[in-house]
Amino acid sequence: METLRFSTAIKAGKQRVWDTMLNDETYREWTKAFNETSYYEGKWEKGAEIRFLGCDEKGEVGGMLSRIKEIEKYRYVSIEHLGMINKGIVDTTSDEVRKWAGALENYTLQEKDGKTEVFVETQVDPAYTSMFQGMWPKALETLKMLCERA
User: Fold this and answer.
1) What local confidence, expressed as pLDDT, does residue 56 receive?
2) What ranges do the domains of the chain cover?
């Protein structure tokens, strides 16, 4: 597993950034960098199951099964990825999934002088490093734009 780190400074308070990051409507916008139809099902609560979903080129719904490992409102959320979802079928045991199951995706928000720094730390299979290095900056740029618009 490889750990990738990304960050951005946003001219907005941490509550606005947090709400924009996790509210359904704006979540769908900033995560288009990963999948144009990206959305989630579940709750942002410690221990809760959450599914990160989207459609593939054939219109089939798929994504990841995850759990909220830790959450501290307006400051920190840690997501533990548990498996894949393909055509409604959850896979937590295949060899492919076992390569990365348990990977964490952590978000830390730090507010100072009217700006919020968003730090993302994500563990990925090295085979996907370059893909995520292209996607994350785009996603964070969109999050920034959504938070800063009047």
Assistant:
1) 87
2) 2-148
